[in-house]
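Study the following:
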Amino acid sequence: MVMTAPCVLLSLARTLASQTPCGSSLRALHKGLMSLRRMSSRRQMDHLQRTAAQSRHTALYPAHVCGITDESDTVKRLRLAVHPDFSFKAGQWVDLFIPGLETVGGFSMCSSPGLMQREGVIELAVKYTQHPPARWLHTQCTTGSQVAVRAGGDFFFDPAPSDPALDLLLLGGGVGINPLYSILLHTADLLRTNRANISTAHICHSAKNTQELLFKSSIVDMHEEFSSTISCEFHVTQQGGDVEPRLQPYTSRGRITAEHLQAHVHPQSTLCYLCGPPLMIQALSSSLKELGLPEERIHFEKWW
């Protein structure tokens, strides 16, 4: 069933489609979108400006919010029912168009393509900030709220069954875990159906404390389901008390270091996806290269 979006969003979808013929360059579209007001720093720049050079779908699809839960004290998890023609690859983000807001949101999906195919929904985990889209999602969004979405991004994991065997390494900091969790969920789907040649998959997530370790229970569940393939490791940098018993075997205090990564880096087979604060990306990218991992096997979100 196709959901109905507000007229303003349908009008915008028609405008975007008419301005961008199928198969043509998106430069004209990007140029127009970049006319939105500039912010004082790159971190505060509009999502469309930050991602102007990345690929994205041309079609804009209506969606509605069908579920909202608290993932942590500062992060809300939203389920969006999407149009049947919407598609994405694990690790990608959405342009989120909100009625009445000039600013377009950009949020990585934290669900798998398989969930969308099975249930027609995608999920976002959004941390509260004063950025208008994030603030709206935390303070005004309700079940039934209408939005529009478009998938994009060059940071994704989409292996073919014929690809050589690989060792997957996922390194995330804070809410940077979102696209990596999508990739891990997709990996689990692929393992269940023998649709990819994945030798190992190791996910390493760093946050201030265990409360801010998003999806931790589900990650441990996947490790227990695929104990010979999927492994996990959590790092907490400002943990005040004891770590809950179930997480203790997988949790270390302090940041992710080269020593933690060494056992999981195999220069010929490891493929690493990295998402987190800029300083973390810079430090871990350097460590991975020092461990012999070629630069072309290190992927990270350049707009983070």
Notes: The mean pLDDT is 87. DSSP finds nine helices and twelve strands in the chain.
